[in-house]
User: Which sequence fits this backbone?
């Protein structure tokens, strides 16, 4: 795995490793949509890509990836856990990835159940791994406990 300080190296790697099939960029905080554009241009054999905790990528970067040769002909796994800028639009883009077998979407706050249903309707064999935190009742319901996040209450 590349460390988070090597964002520029990903572009160099993409431009020189045209046979690349798998890439794990988890927690590479300098990965941007431009990185995905470079991968989509230079890595037509890419099959699996982990972008978990890459907080700068957006739906536009996924659009570039999904409309590329690797996206439409090879990509089988995309991991997008904890990517806060990803929305249901990303799932619309990924519909064109006909070989896609699995998407990881844990803690993607802007992805909805409806978006997941739409991609599953289009790609019925796909496995979508997502987590939706339960809605926390107002503090008054649980005796005024302190809320740390929308799924946790300290009593």
Assistant:
């Amino acid at each position: 795995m590349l460390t988070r300080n090597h964002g520029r190296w990903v572009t160099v790697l993409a431009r020189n490793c045209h046979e690349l099939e798998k890439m794990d960029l988890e927690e590479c905080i300098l990965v941007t949509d431009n990185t995905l554009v470079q991968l989509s241009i230079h890595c037509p054999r890419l099959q699996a890509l982990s972008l978990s905790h890459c907080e700068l990528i957006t739906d536009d970067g996924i659009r570039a990836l999904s409309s590329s040769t690797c996206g439409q002909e090879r990509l089988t796994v995309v991991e997008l856990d904890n990517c806060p800028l990803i929305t249901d639009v990303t799932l619309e883009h990924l519909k064109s990835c006909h070989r896609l077998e699995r998407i990881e979407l844990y803690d993607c706050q802007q992805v909805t159940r409806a978006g997941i249903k739409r991609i599953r309707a289009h790609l019925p064999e796909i496995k979508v791994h997502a987590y939706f935190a339960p809605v926390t009742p107002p503090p008054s319901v649980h005796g005024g406990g302190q809320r740390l996040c929308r799924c946790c209450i300290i009593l």
User: Anything to note?
Assistant: The chain has six helices and seven strands. The longest strand covers residues 146-149. The chain has one domain: 7-154.
